[in-house]
Design a protein that fits this description.
Strand content: under 5%
Radius of gyration: 27 Å
Helix content: over 70%
Structural class: mainly alpha
Shape: elongated
Number of helices: 8
Largest sheet: none
Order of helices and strands: HHHHHHHH
């Protein structure tokens, strides 16, 4: 019986070449994320010494192609280490992304509320805001809304427009600290 190497069901051939390439590209992307971090945050990640040294070397390079080549070398150095060596760094980057996503979503909600307050149905928006944040200074908020509309209509700098956003931001942070 003539068997070729693919017929043996008990033999472990390891990851496919495509999977190896995906893994290498994932390490390269992770190395690029580490490069973008400020040095103060990078120092707190507890990276292996040779990886830290290669990150410093890569940061010094200004030429695009040379930097790209050095980044590939950094990824190669990182692949030599066990995955557990970068667990803290991956967790920190994951937490940063999640926190940034939450902050961005909160900012979009505040911007949408500000637009509702300045829009045609501002009374309903004001009622919703008062229900959500009963501690809001209604008179001050109404004054800011009037000023923002005047500024918008007369093409003046949007000072009150910004103040409304700051007020919403303060209310949101005060509410978050009360919830904790």
């Amino acid at each position: 019986m003539n068997r070729n190497y693919t017929d043996d069901p008990d033999h472990d051939y390891g990851p496919s070449r495509t999977q190896q390439r995906r893994d290498a590209l994932a390490v390269l992307a992770f190395a690029n994320q580490l490069m973008e971090l400020p040095p103060s945050k990078l120092a707190r990640l507890n990276l292996p010494e040779d990886v830290q040294r290669e990150i410093d070397n890569t940061r010094r390079i200004t030429s695009h192609i040379a930097r790209k080549r050095q980044l590939a070398f950094l990824a190669k150095v990182m692949r030599r280490h066990d995955e557990s060596a970068f667990a803290d760094a991956r967790a920190a980057l994951g937490e940063n992304k999640e926190r940034q996503r939450q902050e961005t979503a909160a900012m979009h909600r505040m911007e949408a509320m500000r637009e509702r307050l300045l829009g045609d149905d501002s009374d309903a928006a004001m009622s919703d805001l008062i229900v959500t944040y009963p501690q809001v200074d209604r008179q001050h908020l109404r004054s800011l809304i009037r000023q923002a509309r005047l500024e918008r209509d007369s093409n003046k700098p949007p000072r009150a427009f910004r103040e409304i956003f700051q007020l919403l931001k303060e209310l949101s942070t005060a509410d978050d600290s009360d919830a904790e």
